[in-house]
Specification:
The protein is α+β, with helices and mostly antiparallel strands. The strands form two sheets. Strands 1, 2, 3, 4, 5, 6, 7, 8 and 18 form a nine-stranded mixed sheet that branches. α2 packs across α3. It is globular and about 60 Å long. The structure holds 2-OXO-4-methylpentanoic acid.
Length: 356
């Protein structure tokens, strides 16, 4: 793929105090655009100055939510190298998401090349402060200028980049999670395994309700029996019960196949932990908590990194985990993941891709 690069003549002011960045609010100078139509396929790959998109009001994305996205990061090492974490995994997941939604998948190599070239152009924006990174948001959307709902004829792929700090205001401190018992996020045969905007729209009402009550996030249950734990709004979930690591299985395709999830399961197995990927019910977690066997719980996600869960509330009843403190396994995972990502630890897995 040949990418045409047009640099901005009006570069933005880089944040002076990186501790105040927040998450996904400030954007770099450039973005990547790539167009698709059913006659030419993917064409016109370009990096252009960051700005508004020019879309027809009838574009399919606005009416039928034909949209999928990814979340990934670039990290600056102490030596000044900017690097990516498993970009091919994001590319493959977006390919699978697009196929399920009926959008034209972006070829995996094009996706990775686009991310690498865009980050290379804007790498001076990559924060220097510990815990801050460039959050990269690739997204793909239907652009047919017609409110009829048919096979798509045109689409666009865009990547924007935001220098960011921690996703949760709590940082690495434990978060408060509410188990949602009314709304559901996904069902078998649906889009739960994809990263499509529609999944997050379905989650929004409960997320607002949880935030109003002072929770950071919602924990979703399965859409049929409302009994089994699936995932949190912005991360996968893992429990340490009686020495074993238990996490909801992704087999039924109702849970997002998290890249941080996959990476952390590999680290845990390599360190000799017993890991079970299976159905885990709220009842099992409640019982473990009451029996004093729920040792730790944490979430994993690109934005959330590894985030300890301090409290789980179901139907108004609150279960505190590990005295609302980060536990040793959560800390080990956090240190290993961030150590590899920021180049403080050796990467034995080949997960890191340096940006030129
Ligand atoms: C990510 O972890 O990158 C996500 O896309 C989650 C999003 C809700 C911020």
């Amino acid at each position: 793929m040949e990418i045409k690069i047009t640099k901005t003549t009006n570069p933005g002011q880089k944040p002076t105090d990186e501790s105040k960045l927040g998450f996904g609010k400030v954007f770099t100078d450039h973005m990547f655009l790539y167009d698709w139509n059913d006659k030419e396929g993917w064409h016109d790959a370009r990096i252009v100055p960051f700005g508004n998109l020019n879309l027809h009001p009838a574009s399919t994305v606005f009416h039928y939510a034909l949209e999928v996205f990814e979340g990934m990061k670039a990290y600056r090492t102490a030596e000044g190298q900017v690097q990516l974490f498993r970009p091919d995994e994001n590319a493959k997941r977006m390919y699978n998401s697009a196929e399920r939604i009926g959008l034209p998948p972006v070829p995996v190599d094009d996706f990775v090349q686009a991310v690498e070239e865009l980050i290379s152009v804007d790498k001076d924006w990559c924060p220097h402060t510990d815990g801050c990174s460039l959050y990269i948001r690739p997204f793909l959307y239907g652009t047919d200028a017609s409110v009829g709902l048919h096979t798509l004829h045109s689409a666009q792929f865009c990547i924007i980049v935001a220098p960011s700090g921690a996703y949760y205001a709590e940082g690495i401190n434990p978060v408060n999670i509410m188990i949602e018992t009314e709304d559901v996020r996904a069902v078998r045969g649906g889009t739960g395994f994809t990263k499509c905007g529609g999944n997050y729209a379905a989650a929004q009402r409960a997320t607002v309700k949880a935030e109003e009550k002072g929770f950071s996030q919602v924990l979703w249950l399965d859409g049929v029996e409302r009994k089994y734990i699936e995932e949190v709004g912005s991360m996968n979930i893992m429990f340490k019960i009686d020495g074993k690591i238990i996490t909801p299985s992704i087999e039924e395709k109702t849970v997002l196949p998290g890249i941080t999830r996959k990476s952390m399961l590999q680290v845990l197995r390599d360190k000799g932990y017993t890991v079970e990927e299976r159905k885990v019910s709220v009842e099992e977690v409640e019982k473990a908590a009451l029996d004093g066997k729920l040792e730790e719980a944490w979430g994993t996600g690109t934005a959330a990194v590894v985030s300890p869960v301090g409290n789980l509330t179901i139907n108004g009843e609150k279960f505190t985990i590990n005295d609302n403190k980060i536990g040793p396994t959560t800390q080990m995972l956090y240190d290993t993941l961030t150590g590899i990502q920021w180049g403080k630890l050796e990467d034995p897995y080949g997960w890191i891709v340096p940006v030129k």
